[in-house]
């Protein structure tokens, strides 16, 4: 048993795909046409870090309730955790790419951590070894 996908509600597909693939370095696993339950067109978009099993389903907000969830998936708490081998190089690369860091790097018993926001505004922990 494993978690295969986690949905991330985004405003639009293409800017989200660009953020996750070009900025964070994820792989675009799938981008296929699909339909909503009432027959309207949508896309099935999956990204994941290289070598990872669990991916993100990038779901375009559909309606007011979902639009309100963009950037607030976890009610302001860090809800996503990206672990990297080279924390300093990744932090520098993301900062140089314009990623918004809302908390600077610090060292904790479990390693290095800094909090950044994704394209939708959701907070993530960037994690690396101590």
Description:
This protein has 130 residues and is an alpha/beta fold. The chain has two domains: 1-70, 2,3-Dihydroxybiphenyl 1,2-Dioxygenase, domain 1; 73-130, 2,3-Dihydroxybiphenyl 1,2-Dioxygenase, domain 1 (Roll), CATH 3.10.180. It is 21% helix and 42% strand. The protein has three helices and eight strands. It has helices at residues 13-23, 64-69, 87-96; strands at 5-10, 27-35, 41-48, 55-60, 80-83, 101-108, 111-117, 123-128. The strands form two sheets. It has a four-stranded mixed β-sheet. A four-stranded mixed β-sheet has the order 5-8-7-6, with helices on one face. Strand 7 (111-117) and strand 8 form a beta hairpin. The longest helix has 11 residues, at 13-23. The protein is globular and about 50 Å long. The mean pLDDT is 96. This is VOC family protein. It comes from Micromonospora carbonacea.
Give a quick summary of the entry.
This protein has helices spanning 13-23, 64-69, 87-96, and strands at 5-10, 27-35, 41-48, 55-60, 80-83, 101-108, 111-117, 123-128. The protein is α/β, with parallel strands linked by helices and 130 residues long.
- Determine the strand fraction and express it as a percent band: 35-45%
Span between N and C termini?
30 Å
Anisotropy-based shape: globular
Mean pLDDT: 96
- CATH class descriptor of the largest domain: Alpha Beta
Total helix count? 3
> Per CATH, what is the topology of the largest domain?
2,3-Dihydroxybiphenyl 1,2-Dioxygenase, domain 1
The CATH architecture designation of the largest domain is Roll
Which class do the helix and strand fractions yield?
A: alpha/beta
Q: Summarize the helix and strand pattern as letters.
A: EHEEEHEHEEE
Radius of gyration: 15 Å
Domain module count: 2
How many β strands by DSSP? 8
Indicate the percent of residues in helices: 10-25%
Give unreliable regions as ranges: none
